[in-house]
Amino acid sequence: MKVTQEKLPASKIGLEIEIPAEMSKKVYEKVIQDLARTANIPGFRKGKVPRQILLQRLGHQRIKAAALEDLIQESLREAVKQESIAAIGNFELISSFDELIAQFKPGEPLTVSASVDVPPEITLQDYSSLTVKAEETPFDASEVDKFLEERRTEKATLIPVEGRSAQMGDVAVVDYNGQFMPEQEGEATTEIPGAQATDFEIELTEGRFLEDIINGIVGMNPGETKEVPVNFPEQYGREDLAGKTAVFTLTLKDLKEKELPVLDDDFAQEVSEFENLAQLRESLETQFREKAEQETNDSIDQAILDELLNHIEIDLPESMIEQEVETILTQTAMQLENYGMDVKKLFNAQTIPQMKQRSRPDAINRLKKSLALEEIAKRESLEPQPDEIDAKVKEVTEQFAGQEVNLNRLRNLVTTDLTKEKAIKWLKEHATIERVPKGSLKPEETSEMPEIESSPGDATIEVAAETVSETNE
Asked: What predicted TM-score, i.e. pTM, was given to this entire model?
């Protein structure tokens, strides 16, 4: 079989395949034999249909089309094998299928044009002495105190408040009823669906509830009722509330304050495995130091990888990009599912195309970085040792104990990851790295997932939960 190759853009190889006459005849006859064994034609048993009857009933064009499909697939497989082409992804037919049907005559040669994706060629400019800036995360001793205060707050006891009005930090028990303010003079107020509650506990802390309501409760006394105007943000989670003005009637029924436990050895034993507060503090300090160091290392790694993009030229095949986009969406879906979100509602026919489009730049960058690291590892002979691979495989399998794991595939993935780690380490050792204060480098824009609307659900919960989400963002 004669095959002519042509290099095409996007890491494709064009193939012009001259299918020999004997091959076209062989495939055509095989298709007829298969149809004769399986076709249901009234008056004939399966496998006993005369050839001429089969051609009349099924139609010569239909049989030619079926034979041509098999012929194209078989010839492409043979061409790739014959030419030792490292094909990835599916074949793409360049010739018109309708024209091929018209040209196809069993027992005569046929020329087919197609293309196939191949691993991209990687051009790396000098990477042996990269110069980068990376943010350094310093250890902050106050994080230890902050952590301990958070644990104290979690263990706090609520006690009734007497003789004073509500203040920030208290826990208020309220009844509330939200109503939309009239948009035109003379109109009556209307209730906000789901914005009513009885004996509702609100912690008077920023981000716990609507800010206007928190501020409205501060200064109230138990038994007091008041109306508090609320302006919902333009970007609020519920479309029916976004940008609207409302008034909430609030009745403060009870007021409590938090009594924090004493920060001593007993407290340390209650919240940790340590015998005393000094040991707990020492452990926390070690953890926060390691966390700061890890953040700095991650910042350096990211700076190295970002700079590496400026030293690589690569024409990625579309099949690789599409596969990487699918990987990103799969990872996103798993994360959202871990958060308890309904992935089936978030990923639908309307949102998936948007997600794919927005994820494409990230997919391209990820592929370029990954392929660059693999190429550097190859050039610098950076290979993980068998004992390193074994140790990592063992660690991963222990994490997934009780689950079915494909050990061969896992070993390949582990080998690839360790190879990339060695390449990054090599780049860091040969790079000039300037550490700068955290927050001093402008973050690069990243591809974002599209905003996805969720169903209203329990509006009472949403009024609180969405505010917390907006504050955290």
From this structure: 0.69
Distance (Å, whole) CA 11 – CA 315: 6
Residue 381 region by backbone torsions, left for phi larger than 0, else alpha for psi between -120 and 50, else beta:
left
Give tens-digit pLDDT for 80-126. Answer: 999 999 999 788 999 999 999 999 999 999 999 999 999 999 999 99
C-beta of residue 193 within 8 angstroms of C-beta of residue 161: no
Question: Which residues neighbour 410 within 8 Å (Cβ) at sequence distance 6 or greater?
Answer: 393, 396, 397
Query: Which two tokens mark 14?
Result: 């064009």
Determine contact, residues 177/196, Cβ cutoff 8 Å. yes
79 to each of 13, 82, 84, 366, 434, how far by Cα in Å? 12, 5, 8, 32, 52
Instruction: Please give the angle made by the CA atoms of 405, 406 and 409, to the nearest 5 degrees.
Output: 130
Q: Among the CATH numbers 1.10.3120, 3.40.10, 3.60.21, 1.10.260, which is that of 275-452?
A: 1.10.3120
* CA gap 218, 228 in Å, rounded: 11
Closest listed residue to residue 172, CA positions, set 258, 284, 294:
258
The CA distance from 363 to 140, in Å, is 35
In the chain (473 residues long), the average pLDDT of successive 10-residue segments reads 93 94 92 76 69 76 89 93 90 93 92 94 93 96 94 92 92 93 76 90 87 93 94 81 89 94 95 95 97 96 96 94 94 86 83 92 96 96 95 91 88 95 96 94 51 34 34 35
Domain 2-119 belongs in CATH node 3.60.15.10: no
The count of C-alpha atoms lying within 13 angstroms of the C-alpha of 67, restricted to the half-sphere facing its C-beta, is 30
Q: CA separation (Å) from 400 to 101, 338, 388, 403?
A: 52, 16, 19, 6
Write out the CATH class of domain 157-259+453-473: alpha beta
Continuous segment of H or E residues that includes residue 363: helix 351-379
The Cα angle at residue 289 between residues 286 and 295, in degrees rounded to 5: 140
Q: What is the pLDDT of residues 287-325, one digit of tens each?
A: 999 999 999 999 999 999 999 999 999 999 999 999 999
